[in-house]
Amino acid sequence: MKILYPLAAIIILFTAVSCNSKSNNKKGNQINKAKAELPELKIPIDSTDISKFYQAYPKLVKFQEDVLSLYKKKNSAQLWLDNKGVVEFGNTLFNKYKGLGDEGLKANFPYNEKINSIFERTSENKLSKIDTDLMITNLYFYYAEKVFSGFDEKTSTSLEWLLPRKKVNYQVLSDSIFKHSTINDDNKSKMFSQYYKLREALKQYREIEKKGGWKTIEVSDDFKNLKLGDSAITIAQIRERLSITGELKENSKSAVCDSVLISAMKDYELHHGYTPKNIILKEHIDEMNIPVSDRIKTIIANMERCRWIDPELEKGEEFIEVNIPEFRLYLIRNHEIVFVSPVVVGKAMTKTVIFSGMMNNIVFSPYWNVPQSIINKEIKPGMAKNKNYLAEKHLEWNNGVVRQLPGINNSLGLVKFLFPNSNNIYLHDTPSKSLFERENRAFSHGCVRVAKPRELAIELLKNDPKWNPARIDKAMHAGKESWYTLKKKVPVYIGYFTAWVDRKGQLNFYKDVYQRDESLIKLLTEE
What we know:
Elements: H1 7-37, H2 47-56, H3 64-73, E1 81-82, E2 85-86, H4 88-98, H5 112-119, H6 129-149, H7 153-158, H8 170-180, H9 193-210, E3 225-227, H10 233-245, H11 259-270, E4 279-281, H12 282-288, H13 292-307, E5 318-323, E6 328-333, E7 336-346, E8 355-364, E9 368-369, H14 372-385, H15 389-392, E10 395-398, E11 401-404, E12 415-418, E13 427-428, E14 442-444, E15 448-450, H16 453-460, H17 469-476, E16 482-495, E17 499-501, E18 507-509, H18 517-526
Parallel strand pairs: 5-16, 7-14, 13-15
Antiparallel strand pairs: 1-2, 3-4, 5-6, 6-7, 7-15, 8-12, 8-16, 9-11, 10-11, 12-13, 17-18
């Protein structure tokens, strides 16, 4: 049944609404006017107030100097309060603190109950206005330290990380943050770029975890491998596993191993430190069975390492980076990868050090000055057993030390690349080429052996017309040591990342060859 409203009633209805609207607007304007007439809130906060605060809350005292500087710069007035309470920016900060999990961190502010009472209605804020403002300021420095700096230099050094640490200027950071009233980093400039990529990977893997992760792929005790055309329940399980992390775009659920699965498996192997093969091995299945929770911990550990790296590093015009767990060297020029080479790094007992240096010389047909430790452990016992040991190894005594003569049998190969450092580590060629074919390449005494040293020399000398490939080849095979001084020193960074997002956006996981992740993860999860 259709109901018809009289025209007069409709007019009365709209008139009433209009009048109420005008009345409400009038009241609103009066309230706004009253608010505008309120004097601006000004709470003086001087050094005495700040000193008393830290006497009451000593767990925050490490921020005292920065807090004093900040309030002095802001004319000793409150930063986070106005006539209505905590300003919107303060609430944004608290929400970011509560979201520290997105940064791979735990939210453990030393006075958590106090900070919660300021922002949450579940408990009463018993702090004075001065202490309220100071508590929020300390939350800001706590957040900035956790996200932008990570563990202090003493801790990272104890974890054998000797790359130069990023120095965070909290006053400059404060100026930027307070100016824009946000702690977001939309242009992603405050951190090493890898940090942001790993943060996205963390988000992706936490979503996988929420959905239940992946099931364990089951294999029999006598399992050897799977190849094209094989049929097994395990194959369907592998399909499901690869579809979760994206190597397999569509899961046909087939129990038959086809070319689509082999291709997806090769993609997986490539990004997990394996040489892609046409068969699926037990070690590949073991890798796929690592729980998503462990993968998340690995991502978090590497995000922490990124906090220690100065983002200015990757802005350099030309530099070399070596990632130890990846067993790979990259030459970056003008932000592009211009050269890549597999490398061999130090074995567990003679780890390659995580540090940086400035490459200044290339040495062709080098001598190898044998370290005293190798003389004691290898050469002296060899000489005791064989009187011709030195000659057979192309070694000679030289002013009380042992050195190996230049040539194809030299342990440094035909060329070495020097960047002076107290660890006596450098890049060099090697006669042991077969080691580069292995997936795990931790075999050296600490130096970094380069699979393609000739090509690296050519690339580094590319802009010197006097040193073309022919001259480089001649110098490498001269049998006589010669030095070339680079016209411009090249920074070399030797790092340690077990999770890394490449330039194609693909997340890679590498073996923790020196077992460094566990201690770092423990520190992060205990914090």
